[in-house]
Amino acid sequence: MHFTSSRLLLRPVIPGDVDCLFRIYGDPQTQQFNPAGPYPSLDYARGILRSWLEHSNQPGFGHWAILLQENPHEIIGFGGLTPRVVCGYHINNLGYRFAPQWWGKGLATEFARSVVAWGFEQGKLSEISAVIRPGHSASQHVLEKTGFHFEREVADPEYPSARLFFTLTKAQWRASQGADAK
């Protein structure tokens, strides 16, 4: 499933995206808030991409390559809406990573808003969540601009730092759409 926003083109990931996936997720700058760190190798990225492709058959969920409409041949990031278990909670997880040269341009917010609208309208979801690490103020700002609300801090048994848990319900999103229209 492909879809667009005002500046972005989102398309499902394909096996040929592995080099771009490693370039973005293997970059220490994009993974500075991920306690697992950057992807260690191209083979590791291949395994992740293979996993994404295996789970892309679930209706309403998946990972997308993010491209600019004006340059649909260059992947600038990856994002997705995926069912996950995070610290014992079953969630519809919104996640994304952009190459650093595309930070600060409003693209993550545009991506998040587009995917949330798709998730509630076409995906028929009742709630979407996102988890971030404390101190990741840029992602927190994106989530807040998209309408997410901080729910709680969740201990993460795998890593020393907790996670910040944000949610947005379909009812909250609909109410914000009405407020935006006024």
Automatic annotation (TrEMBL):
Q: Which PROSITE patterns match?
A: GNAT (PS51186)
Keyword Transferase among record annotations:
yes
Q: Domain named N-acetyltransferase: which ranges?
A: 8-169
Q: InterPro entries this protein is in?
A: Acyl_CoA_acyltransferase (IPR016181), GNAT_dom (IPR000182), N-acetyltransferase (IPR051531)
Q: Is the Transferase keyword given for this protein? A: yes
Q: Which SUPFAM superfamilies match?
A: Acyl-CoA N-acyltransferases (Nat) (SSF55729)
- Which keywords label this protein? Transferase
Gene Ontology molecular function terms on file: acyltransferase activity, transferring groups other than amino-acyl groups
Q: What is this protein called?
A: GNAT family acetyltransferase
Q: What is the lineage of its organism?
A: Bacteria, Pseudomonadati, Pseudomonadota, Gammaproteobacteria, Enterobacterales
